[in-house]
Design brief:
By secondary structure, the protein is an alpha+beta fold. It contains 25 helices and 17 strands. Among the domains are: 50 residues, no CATH class; 251 residues, no CATH class; 124 residues, no CATH class. Helix 16 packs antiparallel against helix 17.
Length: 832
């Protein structure tokens, strides 16, 4: 026993003691009771385990990287950590208390509930002006339709040089992600829709992207701004020292996570009744309240993304093996009511030497704020909405008081059934002690609703609508044939605020898609669930590499269908002003796409691609002034001979445009014929270089060899083109000399040449005149539209002036009538 006493003070690890007598076990138990820092456990085989540091964490190693570390540490460590994290959570909430107060107060401005007011009098108006609700609804409807189209919100962009392989890969990635978002992730549409409603209110909303082991797929959950708490010093999710998400889970859901092994299987007790003023205010707007029923209670779970230096799991130097003191990223989940840790997991990839934090949250901002949280419409036009509400209530109250007058009556006047209000058309008996009945009553001087107050409310509402860009008549109600400059000016003026907001959402949506793509490549099955184009189904994980950039399908510069139609219409208008310089098919197609027309190919058949034609068809195209071209592997000499024979006719010789088209085609045939000869002559050298490149060889010697081969081929091609052109010139001269031998034919030909030149000159002048007239028409239409706009403005001014004059006349007339009534009363008074 003395030997054991000697070992106990110096031992820092668990030791096993094989007691020979029961006395030794009793002594050890007494030692455990005397020293609470020593833990003595008796095993089934009679041996004893002594732990002199029961709270010390075992060294890491051997366990899975993503294992629940809370199972490996003692209750002393988890209890201390839970207290520290909960205190941080309370401190972070206290630092943003004013933000919560502004948000909850602003929710009342939506006007979702009608309040019964007793001040300044019973039954006063409790209406709320809908300027804020209108702005929120308009933004949500526009952004939802634009950012989440029916075919899917994802498109891809190739990074670097494009080739057929990358194009097929980009198509597969886009189709698969849109398939997951629209088909597999059932909650994505509803969560995104709800997020777009909260975003303009609070100014900030969040999406949490992660792989859910309970459902076996990726999820993207909407997280309200009041449920994501960050330190006071944080400016973004990346530099935040800690990010705490508050969740509410039912008792059954928590039990499921415990049984599956995701949480520690510990006793949590009954859910504590928690009250959050932000959630309470939101539930009041819905018309629901929280009850004390146990079935309505839920656990408050805090998921803390934080950096920790856990004992036993420290960051160590690779050379010395000593702890560095650097905090590593962890995800600690705790139950707030009982302050109990449910899980502790590493939040960095196992193969990451830098141990960077894995980001799960995406921050959507409506307007950039002065700190971490963004500004919403509650912050920006909340004052205007409150002012409009006050003005509206004052106008309604003034109308109520003017229509239901009240005042004073003499004490001696008795009215039968005076407790009942008078109904329209009712006459009631009155007992007057004497004198005039009119003198026994005095009405309070209530005025009609003020026109000045009405105009003031209109100015306030207009200012709020202008800021929120909900008064989109600047873009949508304009003339469909408006001038280009006018349309661009209207678009720029009416979409400044909305365009900036849309770009911020676009960038956040891009970050969300990147997180989702990483999850798809890492966790989901390694093959596509359907047949793919351009590869086999087993290349899914290889497709999600750095060669393809995943971006939203929405255009960050366009936020509404109206704006897209206006831009497409402007483009079509520019194309029609000079059709020779534009692709009219693409201009019309973009217009149909902006209108949302389906099956465009049936309405607008695509142009047929050019195909090789025989010389006779090419002659027909030349006479019809249609383009035609030469192709490889044609009988070039036969085409050249046919064209030269056709050029010898008087009709063609007297039509310079046809001659130019045929000569152009002959030069194309000469170039292709020389190229085909070169490929045959240098076939051996070309094949040798291709074999070297196929073996993967690279270097300056290979590049120099390829460059020399190209120079030799170009030099030889130039020689062949010169020879073929010389043959063409000789053959043309022979035909020309044969036709010019007869003087009459020569004179006739010259006469026809002059006529052809004159016709060509007239045709050119006509084309230029038509283009000039078209430009003048466009300019005149712009001037007329500007005049019409000016006339409309003048008409509005005249109308407003007339209304003001009419109002002044009505007031003067009313004042005159009042004076006349007063005079009549004065005259009638003595008679009565």
């Amino acid at each position: 026993m003395a030997e054991i006493d000697k070992v106990l003070p110096n031992t820092r690890e668990k030791v096993k003691v094989d007691p020979q007598e029961d006395l030794e076990i009793e002594v050890l138990n007494q030692q455990n009771q005397a020293d609470p820092g020593v833990d003595v456990q008796q095993n089934e085989d009679g041996s004893v385990e002594i732990d002199f540091e029961p709270g010390k964490v075992a060294a890491s190693g051997g366990e899975d990287h993503f294992t629940n570390i809370a199972e490996l540490v003692g209750d002393e460590v988890t209890g201390r950590l839970a207290s520290e994290l909960y205190q941080q959570y309370e401190d972070y909430r206290a630092s943003r208390r004013e933000w919560e107060q502004a948000y909850t107060t602003g929710l009342d401005l939506l006007g979702f509930k009608y309040t019964q007011r007793s001040q300044p009098f019973q039954g006063a108006s409790g209406a709320t002006h809908p300027v804020l609700a209108e702005a929120v609804t308009q933004f949500q409807a526009t952004a939802y339709k634009e950012l989440l189209p029916a075919n899917g919100p994802v498109r891809t962009q190739i990074v670097g040089a494009s080739n057929r392989e990358k194009e097929d890969q980009a198509m597969r990635v886009k189709d698969y992600m849109n398939y997951q978002l629209t088909q597999e992730m059932k909650e994505y549409d509803a969560e995104f829709d709800q997020m777009l409603f909260y975003l303009p209110l609070a100014g900030s909303s969040f999406k949490k992207v992660y792989y859910d082991e309970m459902v076996g797929r990726a999820v993207s959950k909407f997280v309200q701004a009041d449920d994501l708490i960050v330190p006071y010093s944080a400016t973004s999710l990346e530099d935040a020292e800690a990010v705490i998400q508050r969740m509410y889970m039912s008792e059954n859901d928590v039990r499921k996570a415990q049984v599956s092994g995701f949480y520690r299987d510990i006793e949590l007790g009954s859910p504590a009744y928690t009250q959050d003023r932000v959630h309470e205010e939101e539930r009041k707007l819905e018309g629901t309240t929280k009850t004390m029923n146990r079935s309505d209670q839920s656990y408050t779970i805090l998921e803390c993304h934080i950096n920790l230096d856990l004992e036993g799991f420290e960051d160590v130097d690779q050379e010395t093996g000593e702890p560095t003191g650097i905090k590593l990223p962890y995800i600690v989940t705790m139950e707030a009511g009982g302050r109990k840790i449910l899980s502790i997991r590493r939040n960095y990839q196992p193969n990451d030497p830098l141990k960077k934090k894995v980001q799960y949250f995406v921050h959507f901002k409506f307007l950039p704020g002065l700190g971490f949280y963004g500004f919403g419409l509650i912050h920006m036009i909340g004052g205007l909405s409150r002012t409009a509400t006050v003005a509206l209530r004052q106008l309604l109250d003034a109308g109520t008081l003017a229509n239901l007058p009240s005042g004073f009556k003499q004490r001696g006047v008795r009215v039968r059934d005076d407790a009942q209000p008078l109904q329209p058309g009712e006459w009631r008996d009155v007992d007057a002690p004497g004198g005039s009945l009119r003198d026994a009553f005095f009405n309070l001087p209530y005025k009609e609703p003020s026109q000045t107050l009405l105009q003031l409310m209109g100015i306030v509402v207009e200012a709020g609508q202008r800021f929120a860009s909900i008064a989109d008549n600047q873009v949508g109600d304009g003339n469909q044939g408006a001038a280009v400059g006018t349309t661009v000016a209207l678009l720029e003026r009416g979409s400044r605020v909305m365009s900036a907001i849309h770009k911020r959402i676009y960038n956040s949506l891009k970050e969300e898609f990147k997180l989702l793509s990483n999850i798809f490549a890492q966790y989901l099955p390694p093959e596509y669930p359907y047949d793919v184009v351009g590869g086999n189904r087993l290349i899914k994980q290889a497709d999600f590499d750095d060669r393809i950039d995943i971006i939203p399908v929405a255009d960050p510069n366009i936020f509404s269908m109206t704006q897209r139609i206006q831009l497409a219409q402007t483009q079509l208008q520019l194309s029609m002003s000079n059709p020779q310089m534009h692709n009219m098919y693409e201009s019309y197609r973009k217009m149909y796409e902006a209108l949302g027309i389906k099956n465009i190919d049936q309405v607008l058949p695509p142009p047929q691609p050019p195909v090789p034609k025989d010389p006779a068809l090419e002659h027909i195209d030349a006479m019809a002034m249609k383009p035609f071209q030469a192709y490889r592997n044609q009988d070039h000499r036969a085409h050249i001979t046919a064209h030269m024979n056709f050029m010898a006719t008087n009709f063609v010789r007297n039509n310079p445009p046809i001659m130019a088209a045929l000569e152009k085609n002959i030069m194309e045939h000469i170039s292709l014929m020389a190229q085909e000869h070169i490929e045959i002559e240098f076939a051996g050298q070309i094949m040798e270089v291709q074999q070297i490149q196929a073996q993967g060889a690279q270097g300056p010697e290979l590049q120099q060899k390829v460059q020399q081969l190209n120079l030799q081929m170009e030099a030889r091609k130039a020689v062949l083109i010169a020879e073929f052109t010389e043959e063409f010139m000789k053959q043309e001269k022979e035909i020309t000399s044969m036709l010019d031998s007869d003087p009459l034919i020569k004179l006739k030909a010259q006469e026809l040449d002059l006529k052809a030149m004159e016709n060509y000159r007239k045709q050119t002048e006509t084309t230029e005149r038509v283009n000039l007239d078209r430009a003048k028409l466009v300019q005149n239409r712009e001037l007329q539209e500007e005049k019409m706009e000016q006339n409309e403005d003048l008409a509005h001014l005249r109308a407003e002036t007339s209304l003001v004059k009419q109002e002044m006349s009505n007031k003067a007339k009313m004042r005159s009538d009042v004076m006349k009534r007063k005079d009549v009363k004065t005259l009638k008074g003595p008679r009565e």
